[in-house]
Amino acid sequence: MPYLTTRKIANHFNVTQRTVRNWISKGLIPAIKMGKKWFVEESKFRNSKISHNEIQKIVNEIIYKTIGLRK
User: In terms of residue numbers, what domain contains 31?
Assistant: First the structure.
């Protein structure tokens, strides 16, 4: 069973690894910690509480708030 790293997820959504760890801590993405690193089972990521579209929507909202634009 393949696992995704926070780096791979962050690269996919064009966010920082810290943001991905925040999503994990909020329970939006199921993950396990091995040592100092978090890993997400690929199949569980696909079935997580938050969909790819929802994550992209959150990312866009953060970007708009950060640079002061409105949709």
Answer: 3-67
